[in-house]
Model the fold of this input.
Amino acid sequence: MIVRWTTAPDVTIVLIIAAALAAMAFLAAANRVHLRIIDLVNLKLPHTRRYPDPDDPQGSRTSLTFRSPTTRRLHRDYRALYPGDRLVQLYWVLIAAGFGCVLVGAWLFPFKRMH
Done:
């Protein structure tokens, strides 16, 4: 059984908004880290094996979705080229924190009618 603390509806709404903003901030930070990983890997790869530049209007952004094979290959290349660096781990920590905030916001959302 889940125990819920009784709070005023105004406080609950503020907490839900805060959780949503925190989730967006964490996921935006994860995106920035991912773009940095692309830049670092592209610096060391030959031109024929480079990943698409997200700023290039002709580049394909759809090939680097959340858990696509291309993203897995990018992370594998990053670990091979930069064995001591931890940007991939930071990326996954930020993704987990973002989804954690989404879960907190969903848990706070009043599914029952507020009195």
